[in-house]
């Protein structure tokens, strides 16, 4: 089913709420529920796509995995060569060591590359920190990394402003790979690039994944890009996962009305094929005061009375022998009762 059925990361009930503060005394008057009880598995060697509208919590979930934001609840159980540990419970020193395994590539690495350092200057820091003492050795490694992302090794002596957007993104990827990570979170890694350059960078990411046996979490608001890259796709809405399935199943059999609306907005290339565009009413509600029940109900064309008060749980169904998770009160009517399956432990841990 998956390329490798071993779980690398188990996320259970992850919750990242940001306080909303007001006035001179900075009183907390509410919380932005950026990530709200998210449970999912990430399997070794897979690419898990994460899609959803702007502000639905994709970046916060990525940063929560790396513990780069103050996570407020849940577990992030990482498989350290067979030994499972919760990333939230690691000591500072253990987390520093864990960072070698977990890397993130942001939309524009320009902001994270020091403009007054050459590429060698920026990329050598993590290598130094993790014990590559000889400067010659660091030069060799950085040269090899630049070549791996199809840049000339001598570019290490250039400054960030001397590169194009696509080249800078390759440098960001080279930097993420410098410590030989296992899990790479690509957060809108190609969104700022021209379409022709996007394809080059996506293909480079796919090549590097095979070569270095990487696992990716691939975040994008662009479903076509996510489809191209991913084995499985998770759809997020207002801090929650509303649907998760293998990429081809999600496209062939979207069960959640929100996913159906997202898919209907993708232009269909084939002549003669038409897809009816579903236009969602209203804006994305505020994650400070999400609607009760199913958070999608004010925009859902199928909303029923129960949707206004009861939160639909993310449950696993089996469709054509394949697992498909969805959080919608209508799902059972469409595909029958939920299944007891390998994902069942995710369901049972995911209280809403
Ligand atoms: N540091 C922060 N402090 C307070 N609120 C935050 C913080 N970071 C994110 N948020 C809020 O959390 C919610 C989720 O934001 P996030 O950046 O994770 O969304 P996203 O899905 O990545 O959106 P985009 O597609 O625009 O990148 C938003 O409402 C955002 O305003
Ligand atoms: S639970 Fe109700 S409101 Fe939510 S997506 Fe399903 S039908 Fe629509
Ligand atoms: Mg984001």
Index terms:
about 350 residues, alpha/beta, Rossmann fold, eight-stranded mixed sheet, four-stranded antiparallel sheet, 11 helices, about 30% helix, disordered C terminus, binds adenosine-5'-triphosphate, binds iron/sulfur cluster, binds magnesium ion
Structural write-up:
The strands form two sheets. Strands 6-7-8-3-9-10-12-11 form an eight-stranded mixed sheet, with helices on both faces. A four-stranded antiparallel sheet has the order 2-1-4-5. Strand 9 (232-237) and strand 10 (240-246) form a beta hairpin. The longest helix has 18 residues, at 195-212. The two termini are 27 Å apart. By secondary structure, the chain is of the alpha/beta class. It is built from eleven helices and twelve strands. The chain has helices spanning 58-65, 92-98, 119-129, 135-148, 165-177, 195-212, 223-229, 247-252, 257-264, 331-335, 344-349, and strands at residues 7-22, 27-43, 47-51, 73-80, 83-86, 102-105, 183-187, 215-219, 232-237, 240-246, 315-319, 322-326. The protein binds adenosine-5'-triphosphate, iron/sulfur cluster (SF4) and magnesium ion. Adenosine-5'-triphosphate binds at residues 18, 32, 34, 52, 54-60, 221, 287.
